[in-house]
Amino acid sequence: MKVYKDAGQTLVDGVGPGNPMPVTGSVAEDAPLASGAPGMPTLGQRVPAAPAVQTSAVGDAGFIAITSDGKQVISGSGAEEHTFQGPGATITNSTTSTAIKAAAAAGIRNYITDLLISNRHSAAVDVTIMDGVTAITQPILLPPGSTVVLNFSTPLRGSAASAINAVLSAAVAGSVSISPIGYLGV
After folding, report:
1. Residue 150: which H helix or E strand, with range?
2. DSSP assignments along 91-143, one per residue
3. What is the DSSP letter of 63?
4. How far apart are CA 178 and CA 102, in angstroms?
5. What tens digit of pLDDT does each residue of 24-35 get?
6. Least CB-packed of 4, 100, 111, 144 within 10 Å?
């Protein structure tokens, strides 16, 4: 945000260059605001429809990201424009690594916040979630005929442009369905 003087008045670039907003009064850094003092407005910048590869460097100024309906984007819950929900994949009678979330674009990662896993077989089986070919979870035990919901307070973070896969510990005659929920990010 650019701050400059024009005819003795302090101005701050508003929505974009050429749209200055006047700033009046003064507030010392780390000082409490007096009752009724307006404070400095903080503007948010809408996120793009598709996540962009990070271009900022250490020390760069940046904007607060907001969604298309004005909600602030907080780490761990990507912008609604970048979220995804299942259906993932159904694995039947196989121990082959199977994509549950396709690879994102170059420089973009998949972040998994939740998994819904259903074992429709009469035997227990383990499932391991993979970042490409690298395990990012310990084996998850699925009791026979069960549905397991996993919520990650810190999302599972995939590598850039890499699929999120699942591998079963044994081939089961019944199916195991895995639905990922998460978002795309850098």
Report:
1. strand 147-157
2. EES--S-EEEE---STT-EEEEEEEEEEE-SSS-EEEEEEETTEE-S--EEE-
3. P
4. 13
5. 555 444 445 555
6. 4
Give phi and psi for 81, each to the nearest 5. Answer: -65, -15
Phi, psi for 82 (deg, rounded to 5): -115, 10
Q: Tell me the whole-structure pTM to 2 decimals.
A: 0.67
How confident is the model over 130-179, as pLDDT tens digits?
999 999 999 999 999 999 999 999 999 999 999 999 999 999 888 999 99
Which residues 6+ apart lie within 8 Å of 180 measured at CB?
A: 84, 85, 86, 88, 100, 101, 110, 112, 114, 115, 164
* Domain residue ranges in the chain: 80-185
Question: Quick one: residue 15, left, alpha or beta (phi over 0 = left, psi -120 to 50 = alpha)?
Answer: alpha
Domain 80-185 has CATH 2.60.120: yes
Cβ neighbours of residue 99 closer than 8 Å, sequence gap 6 or more = 89, 163, 164, 165
Measure the CA–CA gap between 157 and 136, rounded to whole angstroms.
Answer: 8
H or E segment to which residue 4 belongs: strand 3-6
